[in-house]
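User: I've been going back and forth on whether these two constructs are worth ordering. Before I decide, could you fold them both?

Assistant: Sure. I'll take them in the order you sent them. The first construct and its structure tokens:
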Amino acid sequence: MSALHLFERRRAPCEAPAGGSIFPARREYAMTNTDFDRVRALAHALCGIALSGGKMDMAYNRLSRVLRRRGMRAFGEYLALVDSGDAAVQQEFVNALTTNLTRFFREAAHFDLLADLLRDGAAPRPLEIWCAGCSTGEEAYSIAITALEALGPEAPVRVLATDVDTDVLRRAEAGIYAREAVSDMALPRLRRFFLEGTGANTGKVRPRSEVRRMVRFEHHNLLASAWPRRGPFAAIFCRNVMIYFDAPTQTAVLEKFALLLHADGLLFAGHSEYYAHAAHRWARVTHAAYRRAARDAAAPRQEPA
């Protein structure tokens, strides 16, 4: 008898294995290939997200919650509503599909590089920094803390933090986080820049007011025709955002970033994002950090269209 037979318990032909049904669980809604193609087209048009063909399950899981909440019976019904142009419905769709994964001082080397840039002081003051795709705010507050550590309590730094997802922006502006979110932070930094919650907020932390007042949160879509007119920015953080864009969309966004960044400023990207297709505009400083290419930096600055 084979080893397989030694460990196999004989079961009836239609008996389910120990973990569940022998058949896949029946889904609450049917998502056809046509439905998914519409989801992909709408996501790309509304916020630049390029969903691959393998993301059908992800799209189903996220959007089925919306259908359930709305009491709808079919994806076609909901997608027709999104396609109708209702701004609130389209924002709901975008919020459902965006991925929000962040933490305080993620990729710590970037913040060391930012501190050196701020101390150098080549950009005009007050120093403007844009955190594009700020998610729930940890990155924006990390930028503000870095500025305070580098330049002192009167740091002449303002942080513009934007995201396409209105749900995460509300959480970012509230600035209340589970204690676990700062569990890796050095104790002196934690004590200096955070308050610990009491009562109903026990187990939570919040950045101190000196940190929060440096950051302004705004809704912004990188595909929108209107872009921030402030600047030039000493630094732009756009990390793990454009990884969801196709190359033409990335190129269009990078062109606009170049027009808003100071000649000596830095663009910080995600560690899996590479911009070789924009080498005429951007020169790599270190991994996932870029400066405007020398010829581009010497050109007169223009406002993005």
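The second construct, handled the same way:
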Amino acid sequence: MLWFLLPGSIVRVFLTKSMARFVGREEISDASLCEAIGRAERGLIDTALGSGLIKQRMARRGRGKSGGNRTLIGYLRGDRAVFVFGFAKKDREGINTDALAFVRGVATGWLDASDAAIEFAQASGTFQEVFHGGEEFKMDWRDAGNGR
């Protein structure tokens, strides 16, 4: 189980099944996922899309964020982050209105889900918690996103 610690907050970080496939295909590390949430916890959100949905840019391996990946995340500050959708900037410019509405609905559902519903989804393989090095991940807020 991942507990992402910042001053006054404990954030659990999750991936939907489709997002887990994207993360694997793009070789995005758990540390990179956690860094994106660390930035959000510090108020560094690339785009707030409403209803708890945010967009965070993530660097591609060996490159910067500008041409990298985009992730749509259901996010409740200090509580829960759910990576719902991702795409490589090189493959598409953005997401259309209908798809955005669908992703927002999925994100809202997971943000509102009970702990029992999350445990059931994890057990069935449709939802997974992010781990960092197979252990609890603790990040000092002063180091979040500073490459340390």
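Notes on the second construct follow. The chain has one domain: 4-129. The longest helix spans residues 97-112.
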